[in-house]
Design brief:
alpha/beta; 2 domains; five-stranded mixed beta sheet
Length: about 500
């Protein structure tokens, strides 16, 4: 207990120097930051560029607030700077995300969370120390205070007044020895627990899960392909023996003439019915088509990323469909698939490798839920070995035990406009395999390293191979998003 003053009066005395900080600037930027936080992680009403613009304004107000705190003294200024870290942190996370630098954004998010934790811990310890120093002379005036050295390092005899105030170093639960140390340790432990609970509460209230939103549109997507028609004009060609004794005038040797009648480019023309935008029903204005690579334990799941394989197929898809796409591809672990809520999960994830696939029972269950309950699609690509072929099929026996693989014929929609299966190297044969769930292709397995065809240099394969590889990749992305759109529309109608 605080002797002889009330707790309210002591709190005013403790926090009195910081009272001028509670001004209009604080109210404005704190309210703005809260609304931006809720919209980004929960409501999703505003586009990301507008949120970033508003957050820049909020950050400016926070910096102005810091400027007003400078004349108030060192302690209020430090508190103001510490509070301004929050909008600065959120701005540093959102800006790279808007630019498409998702990896940098995720790194800054984790780093910023650590900085917020350390700064908050420092403030908590400092306030505890300040309160203890304020209480010490009050207790000394009553004849109950120990010497400072005894309080910090020695034993303290029984006090005439028993107190349970955590701000008071004489509290009974701090023991009789090393009370200052025990008080500091208790402060750190309490802060860690409260910080963890606050993070969990924020995650629950704001839905701090990953979300995936498609670009808005409507109607039924259709693929049309311009066909290249080449007319060959071939004249007869005579082979003359120059050593022949028979002399005659040889006819001129004509070259083969090619007449290109149409463009040599395959183009998607996506019909969207009543939609005003090139997108999908159930999408949003801020939605984007994203290319997500699946990371998993074991194997070299990241192969060809250094040669821009994922980026190239994403750019090709955007250029040939008119859909809004992300600026950069992404990487997502199997565990992270669980963080996507129902109806806001990726329609497709890409998986490749050539080493081991070591998914445990938990990851297997998450992948199964993604394919069945969340209506996702897995695009698997054998990156370099027959061993990966057998391991992937074994994995599918665990993920989809009741579904048998079957060859995907060339007349399937995912093979539209693809005259042959583009195989860079037949690591798993020359047949594409699929796992069908509820009448849709939930898993597509490519046996021949299509990621190499997307990569810079196209692994040196002929043009018709890598062009067909891009076409196949775009078809699968469009198929997955179209099926997801149909499912989402039907789900919303039933609800």
């Amino acid at each position: 207990m605080i002797l002889p003053e009330s707790a309210t009066r002591f709190a005013r005395e403790l926090l009195g120097p910081f009272q001028p900080l509670a001004n209009r600037l604080l109210i404005c930027w704190a309210t703005g930051l809260l609304l931006i936080w809720l919209d980004r992680f929960s409501f999703h009403f505003l586009p990301e560029w507008l949120l970033l613009l508003l957050l820049t304004l909020v950050l400016g107000l926070a910096l102005s607030w810091v400027g007003t705190a400078r004349p108030l003294g060192q302690a209020p200024f430090r508190v103001a700077v510490s509070a301004a870290i929050l909008p600065a942190w959120l701005w540093l996370v959102m800006a790279p995300s808007w630019l498409g630098w998702t990896a940098l954004s995720a790194t800054l998010a984790r780093l910023g969370l650590g900085i917020v934790f350390v700064v908050g811990l420092g403030l908590a310890v400092w306030l505890m120390e300040r309160a203890s120093k304020m209480l010490l002379p009050k207790r000394r005036s009553t004849g109950l205070a120990p010497m400072p050295l005894l309080a910090m390092n020695g034993a303290l005899g029984k006090s005439a007044v028993r107190t349970s105030n955590p701000l008071d170093i004489a509290a009974w639960y701090y023991g009789r020895k090393h009370r200052k140390l025990n008080q500091s340790a208790g402060t750190v432990a309490t802060y860690c627990v409260l910080f963890a609970l606050l993070i969990l509460l924020a995650s629950a209230l704001t839905g701090c899960n990953e979300i995936y939103e498609m670009p808005d549109g409507g109607g039924e997507p259709q693929l049309r392909q311009q066909v290249v028609r080449i007319q060959k004009v071939i004249r007869k060609k005579y082979v003359i023996n120059p050593f022949s004794a028979v002399l005659f005038n040889p006819p001129p040797i004509e070259e083969i003439k090619l007449q290109l009648q149409e463009l040599t480019k395959h183009i998607y023309q996506v019909g969207q019915g009543q939609g005003k935008h090139a997108g999908f029903e159930g999408g949003t204005r801020r939605g984007l088509v994203r290319f997500i690579r699946l990371s998993y334990p074991g194997g070299d799941w990241e192969q060809d990323m250094d040669r821009n394989s994922d980026l190239n197929i994403l750019l090709w898809y955007g250029a040939n469909t008119g859909h809004k796409t992300a600026r950069q591809p992404e990487v997502c672990s199997v565990r992270q698939l669980k963080r996507f809520p129902d109806g806001k999960s990726p329609p497709m994830v890409y998986m490749t490798g050539q080493g081991k696939i070591t998914l445990g029972s938990v990851d297997t269950g998450i992948l199964q839920g993604y394919l069945t309950e969340k209506h996702g699609m897995l695009f698997a690509d054998n990156g370099g070995s027959f061993g990966w072929h057998s391991q992937f099929f074994s994995l599918m026996e665990k993920v989809l035990p009741k579904v048998k693989p079957q060859p995907v014929p060339l007349d399937h929609p995912v093979h539209s406009g693809v005259p042959f299966l583009p195989v860079v190297a037949p690591h798993g044969g020359r047949t594409a395999w699929g796992w069908v769930v509820d009448g849709r292709l939930a898993v597509y397995y490519h046996p021949g390293d299509i990621g190499d065809a997307w990569a810079d240099g196209h692994a040196g394969v002929p043009r018709q191979v890598w062009e067909s590889g891009f076409r196949l990749g775009g078809n699968i992305m469009l198929y997955a998003h179209s099926e997801y759109s149909r499912w989402l529309t039907a789900k919303n109608d039933s609800d």
